[in-house]
Predict the 3D structure of the following.
Amino acid sequence: MRQAGAYSGLLCGGISGRTGPHSLPLARIKKIMKKSGEDVKMISGEAPIVFSKACELFIEELTRRSWIIAIQGKRRTLHKEDVASAVIATDLFDFLITLVSNSGNHGVGATTVMEMETIDDYS
């Protein structure tokens, strides 16, 4: 008989008990996964759940770093410039730099070296 794996806790729970603890739509994640390449034909039921959790953690980390920048600007509202500054200030998010630099923001990149060091201290 098959035993529960390390990710078995991700498969059950949630408010209704049917949907699980993930808040991102699994059907949409599966559709994106299938569009990733011609070789991708079949996807197991657990794979979108793991991707959903990874996306949630990614969003949480990017939001936290963006929030630090907003607080440094003495604001309590998160703006897209804060997200762009967090991307620019964090080496981990280098793959997003072209996305935020092409968005037409003139204030993007205004993060100072001291702010970048402060942001990295929180990681």
